[in-house]
Amino acid sequence: MIEAGHFALVLAFALSLVQASLPAIGARLGNERLMAVAAPVALTGFAMTAIAFAALAAAYVQSDFSVLNVWENSHSMKPMLYKITGTWGNHEGSMLLWVLILTFFGALVGLFGANLPPALKANVLAVQGLIGAAFFLFVLTTSNPFTRLFPVPMEGRDLNPVLQDIGLAIHPPLLYLGYVGFSVSFSFAVAALIDGRIDAAWARWVRPWTLAAWMFLTGGIAMGSYWAYYELGWGGFWFWDPVENASFMPWLAGTALLHSAIVMEKRSALKIWTILLAILTFSLSLLGTFLVRSGVLTSVHAFATDPSRGVFILAILTLFVGGSLALFAFRAQSLTAGGLFHPVSREGALVLNNLFLTTAAATVFIGTLYPLFIEAVAGDKISVGAPFFDLTFGALMVPLLFAVPFGPLLAWKRGDLYAVSQRLFLAAGAALVVALVAAFFVDGVSAFAALWLGLAAWLIFGALTDLALKTGIGSVSPGVAVRRFAGLPKSVFGTTLAHMGLGLTTLGIVAVTALQAENIVAMRPGDEAGIAGYALRFEGIEPVQGPNFTEDRGRFTLSNSGGARLADIVSAKRIYTARQMPTTEAGIKTLGFSQIYVSLGDQSDDGSIVVRIWWKPLVTLIWLGALVMMAGGGVSLMDRRLRIGAPTRQRRPVAAHPARTAAE
């Protein structure tokens, strides 16, 4: 099975070379038979990669320690779920998952790209094949997951304990679906530059792929944030870690790309913007891959420390980023800007959105890579921490978030800002009420935090205002409003959900940052500690034996101010026996949208144990907002215009000439 998987991976590499060459040659020569090779080769390449991935997964399930990768990252006593997820819980396996998803997207283009012009489809799949060939070569030469080990050990070294969690089972696939999904947008951009045809139809073809990738990347970032929150025991949801930033940068650029493609589709404008953003978004995804796997960073997210792998990925990064930007520069003179529009218009609002998002991405890029640059040039080690990102990124977000509700209400080409402001009067009033209530009636809220809470409310009420106006609520009868609501395009609901989700996430971030409470106390069994009007009683510690770990489990009883028992909370310190690595298992109780968070610390000589208790108000809104944003992306994908795609051009039938008479 292992040799079959290895051979299938070699075949997939060979097929990627065919996919990268023959369709491109056919598009250049106008040879339809060569262009038609692209789709079946893409499908077969995906099938071969799936066989290789299944072979590695089977080795993990069977605890086949004759495979070096399995021996290094598995254990016979590990629960079955983590044996399966261990397949991608390491560098080699995660890269195999990467190429599996890459070929999967190529196969989808081959299957559902029937309405694409043959030359464009051939070039798109050729670029996808070239990306695949580079990464297949990387896997086979530097990161082979099928390397054998002899003599065969009796037992494995086990998976990294922090990866033995359901959150890390879900996080990498979602993240890779986002990262690699943007490769399709990149391939469309490069193919359009090669073909020289960039129009509204191209934007309609590329938008569903961009939307799907953005949706998955949103889910991947949110899942990674929640995993770090509950698994690492530090109680934070975002640390501005360089690898966290590496996933956040393509999300910012991808959001800008998504909005730019809308303008290009509707108004045939922002063509240069859209092409450049498609290139930059995938380039940032490749940069994230380099940071995680090059060894230049030390992080809980980092998989590899082998410099040779970093050099290889840097070469891939140089090839695709440098090559695509060089092609863009070569074609720049022939690219037209598209339709004209007034600065105060929906197009203008989306341009403003793109300017702020790309500037924010550049800010995160500089803050992430500047310490690496200084170390490489001068040998000095510096750190850029949360204060830099909070000040710079936060300052950019305030005007952007304020402008978001205006965009959907402005007309295309030329809008009326005063009229839109009048329509948003109720939303502005509701947001002002939220800010004033927070400032004067909620303890611990500063004026700055109150403004941010009002801004979050402004996003939510502004999104609802757009939906209410489009359905005619308040200006037409309820029956007519219901019919209008039912007849609205799915993209309208998707936009409303996405903007509401952004508001919910903002609300959660501001609330937990401004209002959270912390209590660190040494406790013995029977002791009580109070926080935010709740009482936490420490019942004691008990040892527990797990399948591949031992843990000291602390039990707590949570009560309200009246003494009524609300819940039991369990927090633990765990030791994984194979690697002798400790982990902290936080105890969390959700109360509405807020949480009580309990983490065990070290035990003192007098028998007491340090307990860290947090009150996290509205913290779950951070991830609920991300789910609502994903739902918005999913609803938009259901829009009939995106499912059908761009209309194909049909030739008009030529009318037959009437028969000529003999006299004529």
Fold topology:
Layout lengths: L1 H28 L2 H4 L2 H24 L6 H6 L6 H6 L5 H22 L5 H25 L23 H30 L4 H32 L10 H26 L3 H23 L13 H25 L14 H33 L7 H18 L2 H4 L7 H7 L1 H17 L5 H25 L6 H10 L2 H26 L1 E7 L4 E4 L2 E12 L3 E11 L5 E12 L4 E5 L1 E5 L2 E10 L5 E8 L3 H18 L2 H5 L20
Antiparallel strand pairs: 1-9, 2-3, 3-4, 4-5, 5-6, 7-8, 8-9
Helix pairs in contact: 1-3, 1-7, 3-6, 6-7, 6-8, 7-8, 7-12, 8-9, 8-11, 9-10, 9-21, 10-11, 10-13, 11-12, 13-14, 17-18, 18-20, 20-21
What does this structure look like?
It is a single chain. The chain has helices at 2-29, 32-35, 38-61, 68-73, 80-85, 91-112, 118-142, 166-195, 200-231, 242-267, 271-293, 307-331, 346-378, 386-403, 406-409, 417-423, 425-441, 447-471, 478-487, 490-515, 620-637, 640-644; strands at residues 517-523, 528-531, 534-545, 549-559, 565-576, 581-585, 587-591, 594-603, 609-616. It is of the alpha+beta class and 664 residues long. Helix content is 62%, strand content 11%. The termini are far apart. The model is unreliable at 644-664 (pLDDT under 50). The strands form two sheets. Strands 2-3-4-5-6 form a five-stranded antiparallel β-sheet, with no helix packed on it. A hairpin with a 5-residue loop joins strand 8 and strand 9.
